[in-house]
Design a protein that fits this description.
Layout: H1 2-9, H2 17-47, H3 58-74, E1 112-115, E2 121-124, H4 126-130, E3 135-142, E4 148-157, H5 158-164, E5 175-179, E6 186-190, H6 191-194, E7 200-205, E8 208-209, E9 219-221, E10 236-240
Parallel strand pairs: 1-10
Antiparallel strand pairs: 1-2, 3-4, 4-7, 5-6, 5-10, 7-8, 7-9
Length: 259
């Protein structure tokens, strides 16, 4: 041990080249050991912190909420997801989960339920939505599982949808909530992201009707968010000034989920 400290703290002018290399190696291992110890202490301390309903420690949740406050102020309508030529779109599109798609769906009876602030509910058919101007987007869809894929989607801008169905009062609120018909999957989206010019109420993929595993008959596509916010098979839509419940937030993920 004494040789270790002698080598470590001797003046470099008193050491041979071999001793200098040895000292740098020992110093690196010493720093590495200290970092491991500090990491273990930090992890033990973090594990003891109080948790929220999702089981996330309070310091981590504070960081996530802090990120949301910062990035929700920075991002704006000027922030657009990068788009690509149609030739780059994947022909076989990956599926990012099937929660909310496991129950049978009566497609003939399907209606989009839009709950207005007045308490009235609109029951909107797919054909009514298709009467609006169609918009297509080809962008890099990003999943929280760590993969991304350039994919091609078609539908109606949510901002056009809101205007057409007279939801001007509803979109002045802070959030939109969405859920599948069986209510197994649900998300909350901040209104600026919902009203973003690239956000679509989507009914096509690669120029064809959505496959069942991609959310037929209707899904959201929010290019400025991770895929967990692009809810498939929309059943109900509603609006609120408080955060709607969110499936992955309840499981410890970031509510904002912005890119």
């Amino acid at each position: 041990m004494s040789n270790f400290f002698n080598t470590l703290f001797k003046s470099k002018y008193e050491l041979t080249t071999e001793q200098l290399i040895k000292r740098k190696t020992m110093f690196s291992f010493f720093v590495f050991f200290i970092m491991i110890v500090l990491g273990i202490i930090f992890w033990i301390t973090l594990k003891k912190q109080p948790r929220d309903q999702a089981g996330v420690q309070a310091p981590l949740r504070s960081v996530l909420n802090g990120n949301e406050k910062v990035f929700s102020k920075i991002e704006s309508y000027r922030h657009l997801a990068k788009t690509y030529p149609k030739s780059m779109a994947a022909k076989k599109v990956r599926v990012n989960g099937n929660v909310g798609l496991k129950s049978d769906l009566d497609t003939a009876a399907w209606r989009l339920h839009v709950i207005k602030t007045s308490g009235d509910t609109l029951f909107i058919t797919l054909n009514e939505i298709k009467k609006l101007p169609k918009t297509e987007i080809i962008f890099d869809f990003k999943c929280i599982e760590g993969w991304s894929q350039v994919s091609h989607w078609g539908g109606v801008k949510f901002s056009d949808f809101a205007h057409y169905f007279h939801l001007e009062k509803e979109v002045t609120l802070k959030y939109i909530g969405l859920s599948t018909p069986d209510e197994a999957y649900y998300v909350g989206i901040d209104m600026p992201s919902a009203m973003h010019p690239q956000t679509l109420v989507c009914y096509e993929m690669n120029g064809k009707p959505l496959p069942v595993n991609q959310g037929f008959p209707l899904r959201m596509i929010v290019p400025v968010k991770y895929g967990i916010k692009s809810l498939k098979r929309i059943g109900t839509m509603y609006f609120n000034n408080t955060r709607p419940k969110d499936y992955w937030f309840e499981r410890g993920y970031d509510y904002y989920s912005g890119l």
